[in-house]
């Protein structure tokens, strides 16, 4: 078992003919992901990599191939519409890699998605990977190894860093999920923690948060009240000045809210072990191993 | 991106929000002319993108055109929190009976645009929120429905607004909501919204923050960007597609990825150093980008050591190493460099850098400790 993606994933790539889309589609295929279709408006009827049919619209692609998951690599100004198109076509899981979507577009998109069964991961995220089964997005496959640790993070390279350290110590992962660095996203820490709690293969979880918003605090409430599996956490941005966006659109302390200190305090109170710096994460995880 | 007061008020006026009939000037002479045209007492207001202009002496009342010219002469060129005043707004002085607050903000937790009103206007709303949260009334607008008149009535009622002003208040609230949506704002506030001696509502001061990600569809707002208000090194970084924030420490940081960049700053602090900046070079790491990043870091004379921390995922460490090597060749060797490359092709990367006279590190903790030592001159 794993969460969200696995061998049953039938992936559609929106923006398959773009530079990023094409590059990462190749990587996903090489990793063993079932890529069944691509969508690029105006290029319907063509083929990508010789064997993947390209369609003009998502609904055509779904009818023809039975795609159940979509990954989006289209430019920011078209990305909100790409998410909505995937949801209207009935896709179960939409993973949006695109960075820079206007936040008010995401307010609309999220309000619409709440009326459908579609789950969105991201935007502005590296996607997710279930080692040995499927990768949807841009997380490098070779740093992962199969095991029993679930990973959920708002960051990209910081997650790679942590996962790589685990892999080097022989500690494998069930699924790693990057929920993205934007202020409004589709899936929260809380959502992913619930999935890991219910996944029989996941024995413990790593949560990598950062400054801005209150998503980590909500996760802490869940950890305290419902979670039986150990959680190791890290919060980036302890030295970030208030009022400045630290790269990610959502990484900002505003009105005194969203500081690293308050998140660390909430997670510690909830019983999570909070690493003081990233190198400590693998040690804390190892201490939980049976 | 933040708009100046005069820019924000011009936007508000387009959405039916009553604002004073002021004008902008860059010289005391122009201020005098404007005061003559307006007739009566005026307020000369410095236009810089910081709070606390009044306390800093950047807002002055003038009874006559002569006095306005004199006040403008004092304000133009003065420094407020490090920013030089180059423009002033000259507004007719208002007869203020009561100051209230009205603001719109994107609330992340509820994913709604929230309108807030308070009977305590003219002061910092964050202070009101901290000291007397009961004096702030909030309503959230569903994105498909917008701000309806009952929302505005809830606000008016909550702050005890006189009944005869409620219809005007509803128009102003809905105007503010429309202005927020149409400018892709993350914050739009009127502070204070005043009740005048003639019992009318008037937006005396305004502020709009625009979502940078949405500027592509607002060329008219993008043009309002005031380059004088930005840190020059941050502006330079922006041109190279680098995300850079200038801080006060002595250890320059160059990292790929925002989360890892923050974590790198944190670990520098953990081991007793102070980060000089946040810098995310993004995906890939071509040598010209690396060179630009290092140049920007080194333009800060306080920097005593540079820590380069790269995780190679899709990006290969040997490529990054070549970029670093090439970039370092073009820079003066004023400060020591600590380099940590991990991930794809890390061995090849390290071999390339072995030839250069750099301090290398394997773990993040090791890199941070070496950078702190190097900044103190204990390691070269």
Features:
heterodimer; A: 290 residues; alpha/beta; Rossmann fold; 2 domains; 7-stranded mixed beta sheet; B: 380 residues; alpha+beta; Dna Ligase, domain 1; D-amino Acid Aminotransferase, Chain A, domain 1; 3 domains; 7-stranded antiparallel beta sheet; 4-stranded antiparallel beta sheet; 13 helices; elongated
Notes on the protein architecture:
The complex is a heterodimer of chains A (290) and B (380). By secondary structure, chain A is an alpha/beta fold. Chain A folds into two domains: 111 residues, 3-Layer(aba) Sandwich (Rossmann fold), CATH 3.40.50; 150 residues, 3-Layer(aba) Sandwich (Rossmann fold), CATH 3.40.50. Chain A is built from nine helices and 14 strands. In chain A, helix 6 packs parallel to helix 7. Chain A is globular. The mean pLDDT of chain A is 95. With 380 residues, chain B is of the alpha+beta class. Chain B is built from 13 helices and 19 strands. In chain B, the strands form five sheets. In chain B, strands 1, 8, 9, 10, 11, 12 and 13 form a seven-stranded antiparallel β-sheet that branches. The longest helix of chain B is centred in the middle third of the chain and has 17 residues. Chain B is elongated. The model of chain B has no long low-confidence stretch (mean pLDDT 92). The chains are: A alpha/beta (290), B alpha+beta (380). At the A-B interface, helix 4 and helix 5 of A face helix 4, helix 9 and helix 13 of B.
């Amino acid at each position: 078992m794993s969460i969200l993606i696995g061998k049953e994933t039938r992936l559609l790539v929106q923006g398959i003919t773009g530079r990023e889309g094409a590059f990462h589609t190749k990587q996903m295929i090489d990793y063993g992901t079932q890529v069944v279709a691509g969508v690029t408006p105006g290029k319907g009827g063509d083929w990508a990599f010789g064997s993947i049919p390209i369609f003009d619209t998502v609904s055509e692609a779904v009818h023809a191939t039975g795609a159940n998951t979509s990954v989006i690599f289209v430019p920011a100004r078209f990305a909100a519409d790409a998410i909505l198109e995937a949801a209207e076509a009935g896709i179960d899981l939409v993973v949006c890699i695109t960075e820079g979507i206007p936040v008010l577009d995401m307010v609309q998109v999220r309000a619409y998605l709440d009326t459908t069964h579609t789950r969105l991961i991201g935007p502005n995220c590296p996607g997710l990977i279930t080692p040995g089964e499927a990768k949807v997005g841009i997380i490098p496959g070779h740093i992962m190894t199969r095991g029993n640790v679930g990973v959920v993070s708002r960051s990209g390279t910081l997650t790679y860093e942590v996962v790589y350290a685990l892999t080097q110590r022989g500690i494998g992962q069930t699924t790693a999920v990057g929920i993205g660095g934007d202020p409004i996203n589709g899936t929260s820490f809380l959502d992913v923690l619930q999935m890991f709690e219910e996944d029989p293969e996941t024995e413990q979880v790593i949560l990598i948060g950062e400054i801005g918003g209150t998503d980590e605090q909500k996760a802490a409430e869940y950890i305290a009240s419902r979670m039986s599996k150990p959680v190791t956490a890290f919060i980036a941005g302890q030295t970030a000045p208030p009022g400045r966006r630290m790269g990610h659109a959502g990484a900002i302390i505003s009105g005194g809210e969203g500081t690293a200190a308050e998140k660390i305090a909430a997670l510690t109170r909830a019983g999570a072990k909070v690493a003081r710096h990233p190198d400590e994460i693998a040690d804390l995880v190892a201490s939980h191993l049976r | 991106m933040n708009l100046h007061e005069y820019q924000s008020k011009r936007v508000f006026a387009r959405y039916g929000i009553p604002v004073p009939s002021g004008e902008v000037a860059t010289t005391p002479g122009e201020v005098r002319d404007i005061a003559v045209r307006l007739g009566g007492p005026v307020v000369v207001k410095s236009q810089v993108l910081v709070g606390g202009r009044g306390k800093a002496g950047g807002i002055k009342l003038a009874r006559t055109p002569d006095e306005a010219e004199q006040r403008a002469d004092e304000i133009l060129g003065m420094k407020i929190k490090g920013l030089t005043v180059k423009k002033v707004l000259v507004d007719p002085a208002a007869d203020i009976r009561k100051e209230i607050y009205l603001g719109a903000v994107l609330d992340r937790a509820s994913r709604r645009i929230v309108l807030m009103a308070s009977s305590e206007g003219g002061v910092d709303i964050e202070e009101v929120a901290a000291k007397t949260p009961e004096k702030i009334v909030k309503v959230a607008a569903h994105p498909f429905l917008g701000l309806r008149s009952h929302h505005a009535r809830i606000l008016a009622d909550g702050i005890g607004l006189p009944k005869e002003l409620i219809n005007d208040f509803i128009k102003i609230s809905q105007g503010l909501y429309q202005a927020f949506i149409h400018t892709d704002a993350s914050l739009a506030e009127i502070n204070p919204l005043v009740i005048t001696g003639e019992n009318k509502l008037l937006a005396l001061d305004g502020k709009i923050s625009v979502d940078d990600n949405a500027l592509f569809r607002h060329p008219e707002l993008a043009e309002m960007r005031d380059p004088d208000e930005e840190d020059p090194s941050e502006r330079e970084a922006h041109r190279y597609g680098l995300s850079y924030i200038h801080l006060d420490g002595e250890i320059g940081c160059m990292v790929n990825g925002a989360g890892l960049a923050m974590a790198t700053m944190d670990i520098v602090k953990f081991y007793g150093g102070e980060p000089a900046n946040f810098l995310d070079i993004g995906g890939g790491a071509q040598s010209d980008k690396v060179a630009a990043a290092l140049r920007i870091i080194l333009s800060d004379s306080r920097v005593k050591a540079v820590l380069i921390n790269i995780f190679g995922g899709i990006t290969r460490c040997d490529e990054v190493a070549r970029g670093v090597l090439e970039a370092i060749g073009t820079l003066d060797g004023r400060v020591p460099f600590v380099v940590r490359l991990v991930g794809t092709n890390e061995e090849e990367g390290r071999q390339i850098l072995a030839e250069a006279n750099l301090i290398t590190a394997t773990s993040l903790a090791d890199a941070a400790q070496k950078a702190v030592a190097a900044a103190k001159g204990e390691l070269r």
